[in-house]
């Protein structure tokens, strides 16, 4: 579906992932049994709904081709299909990671996103 998907993650969790070479998930991911991702169109709404007011976040862009069909798109908010991964994320699938700062209005400022 999408060539690139996104993960919003606290910087401390991501640094742990970098040390191990994989991202096992945030506490919500671990509780649900899969890693939650967002498409370009879903990322800002995800930030507003689940990360409001949080600073020290990172945005990771993930190459879906590197996941070789292991990604599942499943209904979530309002029936929209969200990408989920039912295993640890190998960091070799990560295209880039950038800070996700808060703007003066309290909303996160996203870098340009690709599909």
TrEMBL record:
SUPFAM superfamilies from the xrefs?
ADP-ribosylation
The source's superkingdom equals Bacteria
One Pfam family name is: DUF952
* Designated name of the protein: DUF952 domain-containing protein
Q: Which organism is it from?
A: Mesorhizobium denitrificans
